[in-house]
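Worked example 4.2. Below are the chains of a multi-component assembly; read each line carefully before continuing.
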Amino acid sequence: MNVTLVLFLIVIAITLGITGWAARRSGTTVQFWAAGRGIKGWQNGLAIAGDYMSAASFLGIAGLIAFNGYDGFMYSVGWLVAYLLVLFLIAEPMRNTGKYTMADTLAYRMRAIPVRSAAAVATVAISAAYMMAQMVGAGSLVKILIPTLDSTLKPYFQWTVFGIHLDPSITLVGILMMVYVIVGGMVATTWVQIVKAVLLMTGAIGLTLLVLIHFGFNLGSFFDHVYAVKDAKTHLPFTSPGILYPYGKTTVWGIDKALLENISLGMALILGTAGLPHILMRFFTVPNARAARGSVGWAMALIGSFYVMTTFLGFGAATLVGKAHICAKVDASNKCLSALNNNLSMPRLASALGNEFFGSFGGELLLAFIAAVAFATILAVVAGLTLAASSAFSHDFYVNVIRSGHEVSEREQVRVARITAALVGVLAIVLASGTGATTNAAALVAGLAFVIASAASLPAILFTLFWKRFNTYGAVAALLGGTIATIWLYAIGPGFSTTPPTNPAFPLANVGIVAIPFGFLCAIVFTWVGELFGADRLAEKRFHEIDVRAYTGLGAEPAAPTI
Amino acid sequence: MGDLSAAHGQPVVQPDVQAAGPADEWEGIEKSEEFTTLVRARWRFVAPATVFFLVYYFLLPILNGTATTFMRTEVIGHVNVAYLFALSQFVVAWLLAWFYIRRANTVFDPLAARVIELARRMKGGSR
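Applying the procedure described above to all two chains together yields the following C-alpha cells:
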C-alpha cells in the first residue's frame, strides 16, 4: 500500500463517517425526500452546484479540454447557460405546483396512473445513464490509485452479463457505492452535497492557482503554451475549435458533420438540465418560489466560476502533463504503461503540480486529495441520483400506481426505494462496463442523460405548465417516445467509443438534434390524437388551476414549521 | 404533512387549495386583471430573454463551424475570438440571471401578491 492510497482511504473514511452520522438524523417522508422544505436559498444553491458538478464536470470536462483543447470547453458553456432555462421557466413553477417529484406536477393535470408510470420510466433511464457516467469516472480513479486491481481480479470476472464483460474496478466501486447509499440512507444528501461542493471548489481553486503560479500569473505565456500543444490528427493548436469534431471532413444530410455534432450537443446541454430529476427535486427542498429562484442564482455563480476554471485545469493538464502521459499507470520516466484515459487529467495534473511545488511527497498528497474529492463527488452525486430514481419508482410508480388506493407504510416505501436503488445501481454497473471504462470521458456519457432529459421530461414539464390543450396522451407519448428514441438512436449510432464503427446506421454521436424535436413532436401529435378521442377533458379543466398556481404560488406545499 | 399516503393517486386537495376555491374560482382568478397583468409582466421579460440567450448560445457552435477563420483569429496573444466568445457566454448568462432575479423580486412578486390577495377576497377574507 502506498501513501496515496492510505491518504485516499482516510479521506473517504472521514466523508463516509459524516454521511453515516448525518443519515441517522432521518425523519418523515417530507424530510426524507424534501428535507422538510426548510433548506435556505443559498444552501440549496450550493447543493444544486454539488449535484451538478459531478464526475462529468470535475473529471470529464477537464479531461476533454486536456485531450481536445477548446472543444471540451463547449460543455462548460452549455451546462451553465442551461440554468437560464431552469431559472426563467422551470424552478418557480415546479416549486409552486410540485410535492416530491416531477410527476407530481404532471399528475396535477393528467391522469395519474399512466403519467406517473411513464415519468418513472424516463426518470430511471436518465438516472441510470447519469450514474453510468459517474461509475466510469470512479472506475478510472480506482485504476490510478490501485493500478494492479484490474489484473488481480481478472480471473474472477470471466463471466458476462447480457454479453458484457464486467469491468473489475467499476464493479467494485459500484457495489461499494450501492452499499453505502442503501445502508446509510439518503436524508443527508443535501448536506453531503454542500460539504462536497465546498471541497470541490477548494480543490479547483487550489489547482488553478498553482497552474497560474507556474506561469507566473502571465496569461499571455499560458496561452502561448496552450497554442504550442498541437492535435496529432488535425494539426490544430489546442486553442482552436475543431479537434473533437473536425470540421470539413464529412457531410451528413448535406451539412458539415462536425457542425451538426456541435449543435446537437449544444441542444442537449442547454435543454437537458431543465429535465434532470435530481436537479428538479432540489426545488422542493426550499420554502417558496423566491428561495427557489435565489438558489438558481447561487448555483449559477458557483457553477459558472467552476466552469471558467475548467479551462485552466484542462489546458493546464494539456501543457504541464501532456495527453501522452495521462493514463492509469506510468513508469519512472513518466511514460504510459496503460491505455490513455482522459478522466485522469485532473489527478495527473494534481500530481504534477504537487511534485513541482512540494516535492514527490507533495505530489502524492495532492493526488490523494484530488482523487478523494473526486470520489466524494461521485459518491454524493450517486446518492442524489439514487434518491431521484428511487423516489420516482417508490413514490410515483409503487405507491401511486401498483398499490394505488392502498395504504403503504413508510417502512414498505423505504424498502421499495432501497430495492430500486440496488437495481438502478446494477444497471449502471453493467452499462458502464459495456461502454468501456478506460477510454471514454465521463462527460460524453453524461451527455446521454441530458438528451433523454431534454427529449422526454422537458416537453412533458413545459407543456403541462404552459399549454392549455396538453393532455395525458401527449405527456405519456413525450416521456416514452423521447426516452425510447434517444436510447435507440444512441444504440444504432457511433456511440462514444474511441474507435467508432465505420458505418453506423445513425451518423451522429450526439443524437439530440433528432431525438429532442421528436420528443416535442410526440407531445404535440399525441395531444391531437387524444383530442380526437375526446377522452381527457379533465386536463384542460385543471389547467386553470395549475396556471394560477404556477405563477402565484397559491396553494403551494408549505415549508415544514422548522425553519 | 409528513405522511406520504396523503399524496396518493389523484391529486389530493390540500388545505391551501381549498382556501382558494374550486375549479371555476381558479378560472375566475385566471381571468382577473391582477393575474393577466402578472402573466404579461413575466412573459414581457422571459420571452425576449429566452429567445436572446438561445440565439446567442447557438451562435457559438454555428460560427465555430461556419466562420472558422474568423473564430480562429487571434485577438490578444494566442487568445482567439472563439475563446473570448465562449467566455462572453458566462457573462451574458450571469447578467441575464441577475436581471431576472432583480425583476422577479421587485416586480413579479408584488404582482403575485396582488393575485393572492384577490384570491383571499374571493374566498370572503378567510385566512
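Take a moment to check your reading of the output against the notes. Chain A has one domain: 3-552. The longest strand of chain A covers residues 160-161.
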